[in-house]
């Protein structure tokens, strides 16, 4: 069976777990593990090995096998009924008198120095009488009998008695199981609170030398991370010597979330815990490792604070000249850039402080300063289809730390040209480069990828991208995304359970070396809402989606007045923008009539979302189709008035305020199309005339040329109908 190449994979997986549960670990490692190492992916193989460990531990715990095993905490089980063999200590005790003379404090020891360095540790003559080991055995027995809740209650009772169970790998498995339940998408908030307490309790009891990789992978790659569990895990595992596994990933998750309220104190406490571990375990190189971890964590947090406007806390984290931490100059440049962009009352004060720190950092480092001219990523030279290799090199060079990176439009143009050749390798290479540089560049690439799918109406690919690479935080329709993923997995399992689901993306998880997850920005969440709305055909579901969007914005924009301003979240950086309302305008006005448009606009404005030309285009289009010519022309006229005033005052696209909305070519074409559908040739011709007058005629814009062609055909058709109409004598 092991040599068979067909669909026996699930049978082999179950056989391995069954053999481990019967004690045949050698057989599993010799015969089954090598076969599955070739057939399974890395993540599936790790999950299988974890199940095998569970089964093997349960077997040893239940049967109490002691032969050929080391008598450690993990293997010290309930004793057998037979009387234990006499120990050497017992035999020595029999040779001694029943009453020993009192020792004199003046007597000198023969073989040992009285120095504190030689203080002996008193070890119990019988470990089975040690309450710590007995408590561990009792809890492990409850684990085997599937009584984890009872085990937790027993642990609480032990705490009240001042007894701490001895560390054991069994507690690691219990913590892992509890974390899986805690991160379940359907977990109730009250149940989650209890599970979080249990998880923390079990995690505190794991041995220091246990491999925590599977647990941290589960925690840091969850679709919806539990931030409290992340913070507790980081603190506990850092104290146990696992700072390398948790410090930097936890900092990224806790502080890059725009809705995060974690402050400076948590990071400082984490650093203090780390240094305390270094003092207690002075092994070679450990302090250098932890210093590098703190440097990376501080850099991450300072840049995260700079992007959300928490400048006081960012400045507080800047290291002094004697701290031993030397931040890259790019961190100071990003912070300075964020301060300049904020234009707050304390801008000059912030700039003075950060520039002073930057000058001191330049004096002790050879790093070159980084210039950030604007928030908008730079647009590389035009992507030429005839020279894709040069374009690829140009884009790769633009992904570097501290730089704005390539413009999403440049990436989108390259994707269009490269995918037209039928290849995808270079795009996977480009994404790996972006993901290994910074989360900002990762977000830029993923936005360009989502835009590509949006242009090609591949809305499921947008959802798949979100599932693969984004935490489901504020602004994302979490229940809908999770339901879509469950449905996709279910449909695939029914069709072919032995293979991974077919990806809709041009970059699959296997092709990507960087299995990274990031927090979404407003650009990502807005595009996701548009895709979800456009793919929904059932109108009652569209109505539910609209209510969910309004509720998401209301909850995200609510401010906790009890918290200091410095700790209040800046959710606008992740909540959907006004563009998320455009598909709702189209679908709901088509179904309920053009009166629904102003109502949606009112909801949008009340939630702080500014209308754009796209919203006015949708409403004017519906008016034109419904025969409300005057209303449609009134909307167009108001936008044209704004355009004329801007031209008179010298206002440009860059200097205009958010309330100034100008018509674009797409709006004129949309109105022409609506009037053509209503067979109103006079109004369509008027719109074409005003387009030429205000924006000029763009001969290279295909939608405009197609609209003009359809208008001419409509005019010709109406003329023919008029000629065929019967004529009556006066």
TrEMBL record:
InterPro entries on file: PPR_rpt (IPR002885), TPR-like_helical_dom_sf (IPR011990)
GO MF term (any one): mRNA binding
Example of a GO cellular component annotation carried by this entry: mitochondrion
GO biological process, one term: mitochondrial gene expression
One Pfam family from the record: PPR
Protein name from the UniProt record: Uncharacterized protein
Species assigned in the record: Candolleomyces aberdarensis
């Amino acid at each position: 069976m092991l040599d068979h190449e067909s669909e026996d994979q699930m049978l082999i997986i179950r056989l391995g777990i069954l053999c481990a549960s019967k004690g045949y670990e050698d057989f599993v490692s010799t015969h089954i593990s090598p076969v599955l190492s070739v057939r399974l992916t890395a993540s599936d193989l790790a999950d299988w090995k974890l199940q095998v460990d569970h089964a093997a531990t349960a077997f040893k715990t239940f049967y109490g096998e002691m032969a050929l095993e080391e008598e450690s905490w993990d293997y010290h089980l309930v004793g057998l009924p037979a009387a234990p063999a006499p120990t050497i200590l017992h035999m020595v005790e029999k040779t001694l008198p029943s009453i020993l003379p009192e020792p004199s404090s003046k007597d000198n020891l023969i073989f040992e120095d009285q120095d504190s360095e030689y203080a002996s540790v008193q070890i119990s003559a019988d470990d089975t009488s040690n309450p710590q080991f007995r408590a561990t055995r009792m809890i492990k027995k409850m684990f085997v009998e599937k009584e984890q809740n009872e085990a937790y209650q027993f642990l609480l009772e032990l705490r009240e008695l001042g007894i701490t169970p001895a560390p054991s790998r069994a507690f690691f498995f219990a913590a892992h199981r509890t974390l899986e339940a805690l991160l379940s998408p359907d977990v109730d908030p009250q149940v989650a609170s209890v599970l979080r307490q249990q998880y923390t309790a079990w995690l505190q009891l794991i041995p220091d030398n246990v491999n925590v990789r599977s647990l941290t992978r589960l925690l840091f790659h969850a679709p919806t991370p539990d931030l409290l569990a992340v913070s507790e895990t980081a603190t506990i595992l850092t104290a146990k010597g696992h700072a390398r596994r948790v410090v930097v990933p936890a900092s990224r998750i806790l502080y890059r979330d725009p809705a995060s309220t974690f402050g400076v104190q948590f990071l400082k406490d984490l650093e203090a815990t780390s240094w305390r571990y270094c003092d207690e375990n002075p092994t070679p190189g450990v302090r250098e490792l932890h210093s590098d971890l703190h440097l990376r964590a501080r850099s991450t947090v300072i840049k995260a604070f700079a992007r959300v406007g928490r400048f006081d806390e960012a400045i507080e984290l800047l290291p002094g000249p004697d701290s031993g931490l030397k931040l890259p100059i790019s961190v100071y440049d990003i912070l300075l850039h964020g301060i300049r962009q904020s234009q707050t009352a304390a801008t000059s004060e912030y700039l003075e402080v950060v520039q002073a720190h930057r000058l001191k950092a330049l004096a002790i480092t050879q790093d070159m300063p980084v210039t950030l001219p604007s928030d908008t990523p730079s647009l590389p030279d035009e992507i030429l289809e005839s020279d894709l290799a040069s374009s690829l090199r140009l884009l790769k060079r633009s992904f570097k730390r501290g730089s704005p990176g390539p413009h999403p439009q440049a990436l989108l143009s390259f994707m269009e040209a490269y995918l037209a050749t039928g290849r995808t390798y270079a795009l996977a290479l480009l994404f790996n480069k972006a993901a290994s540089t910074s989360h900002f560049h990762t977000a830029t690439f993923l936005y360009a990828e989502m835009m590509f799918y949006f242009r090609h109406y591949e809305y499921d690919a947008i959802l798949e991208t979100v599932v693969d690479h984004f935490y489901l935080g504020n602004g994302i329709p979490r229940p809908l995304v999770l339901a879509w993923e469950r449905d996709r997995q279910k449909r695939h399992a029914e069709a072919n359970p032995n293979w991974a689901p077919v990806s809709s993306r041009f970059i699959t998880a296997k092709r990507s070396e960087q299995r990274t997850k990031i927090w979404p920005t407003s650009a990502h969440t807005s595009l996701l809402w548009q895709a979800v709305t456009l793919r929904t055909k059932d109108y009652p579901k569209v109505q539910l989606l609209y209510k969910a969007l309004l509720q998401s914005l209301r909850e995200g924009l609510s401010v906790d007045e009890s918290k200091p301003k410095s700790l209040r979240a800046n959710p606008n950086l992740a909540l959907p923008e006004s563009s998320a309302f455009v598909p709702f305008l189209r679908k709901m006005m088509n179904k309920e009539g053009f009166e629904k448009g102003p109502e949606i606009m009112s909801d949008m404005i009340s939630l702080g979302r500014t209308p754009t030309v796209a919203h006015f285009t949708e409403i004017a289009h519906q008016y034109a189709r419904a025969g409300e010519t005057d209303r449609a022309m009134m909307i167009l006229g108001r936008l044209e008035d704004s355009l004329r005033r801007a031209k008179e005052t010298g206002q440009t696209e860059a200097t205009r305020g958010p309330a100034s909305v100008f018509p674009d070519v797409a709006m004129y074409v949309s109105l022409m199309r609506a009037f053509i559908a209503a067979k109103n040739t006079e109004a369509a011709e008027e719109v074409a005339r005003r387009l030429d007058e205000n924006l000029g005629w763009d001969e290279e814009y295909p939608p405009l040329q197609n609209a003009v062609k359809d208008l001419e055909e409509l005019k010709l058709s109406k003329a023919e109908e008029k000629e065929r109409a019967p004529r009556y004598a006066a």
